[in-house]
Design goal:
Layout (H helix, E strand, L loop, with lengths): L1 E2 L7 H16 L7 H27 L9 E3 L4 E3 L1 H27 L5 H19 L3 H19 L6 H32 L4 H10 L7 H18 L7 H8 L2 H26 L4 H23 L5 H22 L5 H32 L12 H4 L1 H15 L5 H15 L3 H27 L10 H9 L2 H19 L2 H15 L2
Parallel strand pairs: 1-2
Antiparallel strand pairs: 2-3
Helix pairs in contact: 1-2, 1-4, 2-3, 2-4, 3-4, 3-10, 3-13, 3-19, 3-20, 4-5, 4-10, 5-6, 5-10, 6-7, 6-8, 6-9, 8-11, 9-10, 9-12, 10-12, 10-13, 11-12, 11-17, 12-13, 12-16, 12-17, 13-15, 13-16, 13-19, 13-20, 15-17, 15-19, 16-17, 16-19
Length: 505
């Protein structure tokens, strides 16, 4: 490995952080707030381009120097293909979120620099999480990701539901952060190390986690802190209320980006730091995964509010993803980690698209996100209904969409790791999810149109002009769902290479 303390190691995250500061300052001098969205998007595109450049530089070195990893900041931060893959994904999600947010905020006269600044700081924290190989850096970046998210959930503070969502998320998040910090502190107390490699060596020196009671408690607390962040059952109670009350673009971002950062960051922590204690944390993960899949899908069945339905759906998908972490401790575990990366990229297209549809409708006319209100909407908005069908079919896991391949690769990794029964449970739960996903399509195409309120001319004109960003984001998501469903190989190979080069497969 080559040590490099240069700021070039954190270039994408640095670009995002500087853009966050810049957008807040720019807000003081511009009257057209749409410029802020363009400025923030430009920063994310630059960060994504920097990550791609780092990826190309790292992969070109394979076979030349035998070095695929660069470490800096006293061994706390790493630059590798895993972090660059995740960074590019986070930047793409951020751009799509901003495209969904512009018209939504403008309608509510809430388009201000602090929204985009907070969003960018969250993404900077996410990038830091996946780049950290030290528990101190990891926790600092975890908090940098979490704290602005609480504010974003309550961003429309004049609305009771939004302020309530922010408060609930803050309380739940504070508990999860405290539990995670306690677990990491106990891991340090047991091993005397803060780096991932040092903790792994300490666990091996102690003969595994089973022979050291403090270490067992540490690993369980880390798993619980992780479970809070991804809304795994029984630590999920905050998610439906927060998802329903938060501004819809924020809900889309939380359900995709925060979940992606949590799984990508904790996957590195579990595989690199506490893999010698796999038996302890994997057993806890199996229990959480089964509960999360079953409870998430069952509670989604009766939901009539589409945001709450997608919230419980997001909980169920967290259960599927946890299966990849269970597989990560086996000999074939690297396949499980690459399947997680592939699934996260696929889920980003599917879920951002689904929430984008809701935002499009809400900006056109009064809409309370209920199932009855989308009845017959295929006659009013045929393209939107078609896109929605793509997203719902893909979330179900029906070929030839990207959702099918995401579940196929993930469940295959679970089977290869020797947990066939877990894969069977996941397949059954995916079949259950078909009811509430395809029910949305049924209402759109085969139910009589609801008695919608008239759309006033000014609002409809705004929908045609300002909502171009929303339509573009939904279109990109729909194209991604279909094209990557037909040609999943490039994305899968990239995910495998990201894991192989860093974890040495």
């Amino acid at each position: 490995m080559e040590t490099n303390s240069s700021l070039m190691l954190i270039l994408p995250g640095l670009i995002v952080a500087l853009t966050a500061i810049g957008v807040v300052l720019l807000d003081l001098f511009v009257a057209r707030k749409a410029i802020l969205a363009w400025f923030a998007s430009a920063g994310l595109v630059a960060a994504g381009a920097a990550a791609v450049g780092q990826w190309l530089a790292l992969t070109s070195e394979v076979g030349e120097r035998g070095s695929h990893v660069e470490i800096g900041f006293s061994g706390m931060i790493v630059l590798d293909t895993y972090s660059t893959f995740a960074t590019a994904l986070f930047a793409a999600i951020g751009v799509l979120t901003i495209m969904l947010s512009d018209a939504y905020l403008a309608q509510r006269r809430a388009s201000r620099g602090e929204f985009y600044g907070l969003l960018l700081f969250v993404i900077a924290g996410m990038i830091g999480m996946v780049s950290s190989v030290d528990v101190i850096a990891f926790f600092v970046c975890f908090e940098l990701m979490s704290l602005p998210t609480y504010v974003l959930a309550g961003y429309l503070w004049r609305q009771r539901r939004s302020s309530e969502a922010g408060l609930k998320y803050f309380v739940a998040g504070a508990f999860s952060s405290a539990i995670l910090a306690f677990g990491l502190a106990l891991a340090y107390g047991s091993t005397g190390q803060t780096t991932y490699a040092g903790i792994a060596e300490g666990i091996q020196r102690l003969g595994g986690s089973g022979g050291h009671g403090m270490l067992v408690v540490a690993l369980i607390l880390v798993v619980v802190g992780f479970a809070f962040k991804v809304a795994a059952v029984p630590f999920h109670a905050w998610a439906p209320d927060v998802y329903e009350g938060a501004p819809t673009p924020v809900t889309a971002f939380m359900s995709v980006a925060v979940k992606a950062a949590a799984f990508a960051g904790f996957a590195r922590l579990f595989v690199m730091a506490v893999d010698p204690g796999w038996a302890t944390w994997a057993n806890a993960m199996i229990i959480l995964a089964v509960l999360t899949m079953v409870v998430g899908n069952v509670l989604a069945l009766p939901q009539r509010n589409l945001k709450r339905m997608l919230a419980y759906s997001s909980i169920a998908h967290a259960g599927y993803l946890m299966l990849g972490l269970v597989a990560a401790g086996r000999e074939e575990g690297l396949v499980g980690v690459s399947a997680i990366l592939f699934y996260l990229a696929a889920y980003a297209f599917m879920n951002i698209g689904a929430f984008g549809v809701l935002i499009w409708i809400r900006n056109r006319r009064p809409f309370e996100y209920t199932l009855d209100e989308v009845s017959g909407i295929a006659r009013e908005m045929p393209w939107l209904a078609l896109f929605t069908a793509f997203f719902m079919v893909s979330l179900t896991g029906i070929p030839p969409t990207i959702g099918f391949w995401a579940k196929f690769y993930l469940f295959t990794a679970v089977v290869d790791s020797g947990y066939t029964w877990l894969a069977v449970v996941a397949v059954i739960m995916s079949a259950v999810s078909a009811y509430y996903y395809l029910r949305v399509v049924w209402y759109m195409y085969f139910r009589d149109a609801a008695d919608h309120s008239e759309v006033d001319a000014a609002r409809d004109e705004m929908a045609v002009t300002q909502q171009r960003g929303v339509l573009a984001a939904v279109t990109v998501a729909a194209v991604g769902v279909v094209v990557l469903g037909i040609l999943p190989e490039p994305l899968l190979r990239s995910a495998e290479e990201a894991v192989r080069l860093i974890f040495g497969g």
